[in-house]
Amino acid sequence: xxxxxxxxxxxxxxxxxxxxxxxxxxxxxxxxxxxxxxxxxxxxxxxxxxxxxxxxxxxxxxxxxxxxxxxxxxxxxxxxxxxxxxxxxxxxxxxxxxxxxxxxxxxxxxxxxxxxxxxxxxxxxxxxxxxxxxxxxxxxxxxxxxxxxxxxxxxxxxxxxxxxxxxxxxxxxxxxxxxxxxxxxxxxxxxxxxxxxxxxxxxxxxxxxxxxxxxxxxxxxxxxxxxxxxxxxxxxxxxxxxxxxxxxxxxxxxxxxxxxxxxxxxxxxxxxxxxxxxxxxxxxxxxxxxxxxxxxxxxxxxxxxxxxxxxxxxxxxxxxxxxxxxxxxxxxxxxxxxxxxxxxxxxxxxxxxxxxxxxxxxxxxxxxxxxxxxxxxxxxxxxxxxxxxxxxxxxxxxxxxxxxxxxxxxxxxxxxxxxxxxxxxxxxxxxxxxxxxxxxxxxxxxxxxxxxxxxxxxxxxxxxxxxxxxxxxxxxxxxxxxxxxxxxxxxxxxxxxxxxxxxxxxxxxxxxxxxxxxxxxxxxxxxxxxxxxxxxxxxxxxxxxxxxxxxxxxxxxxxxxxxxxxxxxxxxxxxxxxxxxxxxxxxxxxxxxxxxxxxxxxxxxxxxxxxxxxxxxxxxxxxxxxxxxxxxxxxxxxxxx
Amino acid sequence: xxxxxxxxxxxxxxxxxxxxxxxxxxxxxxxxxxxxxxxxxxxxxxxxxxxxxxxxxxxxxxxxxxxxxxxxxxxxxxxxxxxxxxxxxxxxxxxxxxxxxxxxxxxxxxxxxxxxxxxxxxxxxxxxxxxxxxxxxxxxxxxxxxxxxxxxxxxxxxxxxxxxxxxxxxxxxxxxxxxxxxxxxxxxxxxxxxxxxxxxxxxxxxxxxxxxxxxxxxxxxxxxxxxxxxxxxxxxxxxxxxxxxxxxxxxxxxxxxxxxxxxxxxxxxxxxxxxxxxxxxxxxxxxxxxxxxxxxxxxxxxxxxxxxxxxxxxxxxxxxxxxxxxxxxxxxxxxxxxxxxxxxxxxxxxxxxxxxxxxxxxxxxxxxxxxxxxxxxxxxxxxxxxxxxxxxxxxxxxxxxxxxxxxxxxxxxxxxxxxxxxxxxxxxxxxxxxxxxxxxxxxxxxxxxxxxxxxxxxxxxxxxxxxxxxxxxxxxxxxxxxxxxxxxxxxxxxxxxxxxxxxxxxxxxxxxxxxxxxxxxxxxxxxxxxxxxxxxxxxxxxxxxxxxxxxxxxxxxxxxxxxxxxxxxxxxxxxxxxxxxxxxxxxxxxxxxxxxxxxxxxxxxxxxxxxxxxxxxxxxxxxxxxxxxxxxxxxxxxxxx
Lengths: 641, 641
Hints:
Oligomer: homodimer
Number of helices of chain A: 24
């Protein structure tokens, strides 16, 4: 009883500390982080996602959360951590503290910064699973929205470095002076000794596993979605309610993990393992718990172990008798339910470990039940069902396959893993979306999907550009520019060459708010409406001044301090006008425009008119114009929901 | 002597047969086929690349070529074969013979057919190396130009099926009744028993391997390029000269493989292998050749073996004494030279096997020389140098890495393979391009590169649209349409809505030549200039009639048989006009337009005017407008070569 109080106390304290970090310092650090990174790489430039504070909270919160005994993984947070580190580097250090390097200037643009962050995410996966190729594929399959062939090579180099560093650390730690880290080599669950010879009957069993995994995975996603909706209501009430929620879940978790083993009967140790069973030390397979000497508690052996060791136990061959069906069923139900309950509390929490644990225990259970039909090892069933659960929840194929191979080093199993993944993904796709996509949607982030929504097919680009179009003249009065920037929140403005500079109104290009602000601060103004020339502007400002600022460091309109006299002068926008804006004609199908917008990773797209009668630009499309909610708001009646 | 004559006679006959097949039936079947598939998937819709005749010649030519003892691989041809089979399926069977299925209609468009062919290429690699994940990655990294996330999942399913079928065949053939195929499991060179523990010294040796592999790989590419230029002069002279060239190379190959072992001294068999050495049977490691009993000829053991067995021998651990330094050097030089000489003869020939053989022998040689410095096994050196040669010639990273892992099943080597590949690719990239890119360029195919050429940066889209723009009215006289189709070779025409249908000229969209021909054949004409309406057209023609025809089956202008009276009637182009053409403004940077054009996989792009003074469309950009040669022809003086 005393032990229980200490156990529950420690866990709840750790959990509350993690929740406090998340709630007060960086709310963006809660959860897996993979949906956020996915959203960032889709072009959603939300500051908090990759801020340094998020990074710190993610690291420490994850450590606290794992220590608190929650059913959660460290893999998702590691992906987020990797992305945060990359983003921190990509901001080019800090000008304030003189920590800038010249080479780091190359990342002062969206494209390269995005590549860097993709590499960071790949490095996170590579480090979490010690799976370099899996990391590359995870970044490509799940995280990025835009794939370029150089990206493959860049992520590959990153993970090569990661694996070299990991290998160095492991060989340094082999002596055991880094705690648990030193244990095990580069391959976490080396099962390569097993020979897999399978028959048609086994294939049928594997297919059944795939179907069950797909169903349970889809169900998991459904529950996670519902729970997150409930939690978000609670979390909205403030930081305190977040901490209380986390502490409650922690208490429930502790009760389950500590209480359930009491209900299990003790098993006598197998005689051939006299020295090793039961283990009292820190990590080992046969936990004594409440049992008399020479016996072990199977459920406690699963719960009171590191997650890695629990998974290794479940995957191992030849341990059929160690865990009975009742133990496995209890463990599966507990992990599945706690996995659903835990995700969404204000703690950095990954989904990989809960899903793998649930899948492995369910697989062993199925294996034990199907023992008469299939001759496959139950450990193999555990591995395959872990694959099928991963496929059912996350809907990844190649990357999960390679990650599992890199975890277990057993290439003979490749055909079976591929089969089970394909079936699980196909089955689960009939019910709902992958868990990460679902979370991106639920967070309300303006994520651009690969495929256009059906409602866009019946609309054209001109239909959704609404409100008066705000354009600037190619040589504009300073006051007008400042006023425009103050009164609108737009980030891009079309520039029109007007008489007397042109015979008829002519599209000159597009200027960005951030460039306008830098130009205005440079104060290259003229008295009359005349071209100043680029040479004049670049005498005062270096091209690098226009580079993308680090997070939250950009200029604001309020920072400008212009005199009345300056406000009446003119500024030449030609030097900063992007003369090659991407355009679509006004009766371009909205669905096609959406695919184009996403495919080119744009932020603004000009809609040009098709006829000579009207001015050259009709409007500007931004990300928000492609959001289904917005379109449904504009055309509520004509579009089926 | 008699044996030599028989040997050389057999080889030359087989070689000549293969060359005759290629020269007379399908010249497109010569060579590796990977550059051609790459070009097709870049949007170059050349009929012969994936024609059924190419498929047949590729299969039989490859069998003959490998049997003829050439230093060439079957892997490249298998990729091409896979793509051809996919293309054949994707054409929807044959309407002529009633072999059509409804579901196959889905492939009657460029996008899906391209996906199918990518899957075919992936299946080819998966079958050739028994490497399903490697196949997926190869298709993504090397073959496709456009990557979509569904493609990952599709190629993965394909290779999963491939590996299941392969496994079934292997287990069926285990009894040995399929010749050499039954030998070996799904993993071709299983080396998993080896433990790799490496030190800093070993890493230095591995880096050296990477640098040497990069240099020799780049040199290989250089030689292949030169040799191909020489051969193409000979091959242009006709089919007979192709056959003579092939026969000559065959004689040289036979002389080398048969002659060189005579120069080698015999090695006594190691005493512990009394029963196995020398082998007289079909496949084995210790070939007797001219040696007395109890001795073997090391060089003959490499030459007179299947390529697979030769590679397995070189990769194996613990055979340090089997092959001496002189043997390895001779073998390396011969294979390297013959590999260069053989590629480019009119025989289906892959590059993987020669490169792996050269790399493996060079690696063992280096390993033997560095034996005092590095403690790594020479078999491991062979594997790593094979990786470095592959990286140096083909410049692939992730896919080569995964293919090698799937070939050898040794995940412990992953960090070393990654390192060596990265170094080799980086070194080789300093000198020239990858061998496949080089060949695409040399064949003069209008391949669109990922990055725009530097000469495009100083030009705008309007600069390269040349010649008079041919437009059609939205309701056009039949005679005019026919005349336009006869007199120009264009495949797309802008449609302009003109008075009286519109107040001012207005861009209506784009029509395709193939759609115009189908519409004209449908004969939905009106007497006066009036809209006929889509309903009228689609009463006569099903939407499927407009689907992309199979290879070479499309309509031609000459096939139309219209009377004089019909030629004076009008045809409404609205139903077949693509009202959402992709457009760029005329002063869009040409480099950006090129990236857009390639990124969206377009065939036509309208250039619209920026001002109200001019008609809405200025010109049409096609693939050829982005070719550097064309641009240099237009602006020879202003653009540096």
